[in-house]
Specification:
disordered N terminus; 242 residues; mainly alpha; Tetracycline Repressor, domain 2; Arc Repressor Mutant, subunit A; 11 helices
Length: 242
């Protein structure tokens, strides 16, 4: 009796289900929801926004919104991501065309002030609702904010390499001064309807930043400076006594 030398037939593995790409209609519907959500979020903030209002603007039932975005927070994050990505790209392209610390800092400040002036709803939403939320640090929005502010660090690092700044510049403090200071400066724009001249603000704030960054500390620190000051005072007294 002959035995077969053919290898055993391979077992057929069950086909894994693959997610089909969203249809053109689904993509269009998601875009409509995002557009409506953007208008409501920017106008009313997170707490003041009702999903039912977003659904009403699109002309769908409220439950259909959750089919595309499981939670209100998911919808908000996607709205902000769509606003951040073009902004980050715009800043990156402008930054790449500019050389020198002064020019780069002014561009970063000028572009940031424009966000307050041109899209105050976005600034209010991010600064006073989203960023203060408990889940912000672990959200994708935190990563977007890091990418948005990275250009300040890049400008400072390049300035140190080019000897425009001393190597001991505290970059975290400088970054906090730039964005934190502008936040307080623009508060009347966000909540008081005050108008500002973007170019003038950019010029003045750039000069302020550079004055602090480029001030070379005297060798030896504060104690050495005080000792030299005391020596000058003593020398002055001796001269008067003579």
């Amino acid at each position: 009796m002959k035995t077969s030398t053919r290898p055993p037939a391979a077992k057929k593995l069950p086909k894994q289900a693959t997610a089909s790409p969203p249809s053109e209609r689904s993509q269009r519907r998601a875009g409509e929801i995002l557009a409506a959500a953007r208008e409501v979020f920017l106008k009313k903030g997170v707490q003041g926004t009702a999903i039912s209002e977003i659904a009403s603007r699109v002309g769908i039932v409220e439950g259909l919104v959750f089919r595309y975005f499981p939670t209100k927070r998911d919808l908000l994050h996607e709205v902000l991501r769509e606003m951040y990505e073009p902004l980050i790209q715009d800043i990156g392209e402008g930054f790449a065309r500019i050389q020198g610390l002064r020019a780069r800092l002014r561009f970063i400040i000028w572009r940031h002030v424009r966000v307050y002036v041109e899209t105050p709803g976005l600034a209010r939403l991010v600064l006073h609702e989203v960023r203060t939320g408990p889940e912000y640090a672990s959200s994708g929005l935190h990563d977007l904010q890091v990418r948005y502010t990275q250009f300040t660090r890049l400008a400072l690092e390049e300035a140190i390499k080019d000897h425009e700044l001393p190597a001991n510049v505290d970059m975290d403090a400088a970054r906090a001064m730039l964005y934190g200071g502008l936040e307080h400066l623009m508060w009347p724009v966000l909540f008081g309807n005050q108008r500002v001249n973007v170019d003038a603000v950019a010029d003045n704030y750039t000069a302020l930043m550079l004055h602090g960054l480029q001030a070379a500390p005297a060798p030896g620190g504060v104690e050495a400076r005080l000792a030299r000051l005391e020596a000058l005072v003593v020398a002055g007294r001796r001269c008067r006594q003579k």
